Amino acid sequence: MPEVQPSSRSCFVCGRENALGLHARWIADRERGEVRSETVVGEAFNGYPGVVHGGIVTALLDEAMARTALLAGGFEDLLVTGRITVTFRQPTPTGQPIVVAARITRRSGSRSQAEAEIRLADGTVTAQAEALMTRPPPEVAAAWAEERKHWRVDG
Question: Does pLDDT of 38 surpass 90?
């Protein structure tokens, strides 16, 4: 059964309180081994009129793949991206519903590999990505401690 994943307060992609952010909400479907978000990216995030900026597309794909670590764990299992490869298939339009979905392709110790894509309502894939993720250095993970208390699901 799909479940809503928690969000932070400040993250650019999911932050509930980030006035400049995307406010994406994420669903974990453990049966399918997938994390996904159905969202609409506003025109304020364009690269060209009517087209989502490539950096925003990459941020959405990156967030989705990082969240796959939560399928088998919790906040302590969050990973950081060591390498990401994005393939842009066609422009991702602003102002239209999109689905961002990601799956783990391999997990081994402190590393994980994942893949993700962005699909339009008709199923057309606009962008795909692969990433290698790893445990963050201890000083990075320690900095997350303050945010942890704000990590929750909005009601």
Answer: yes
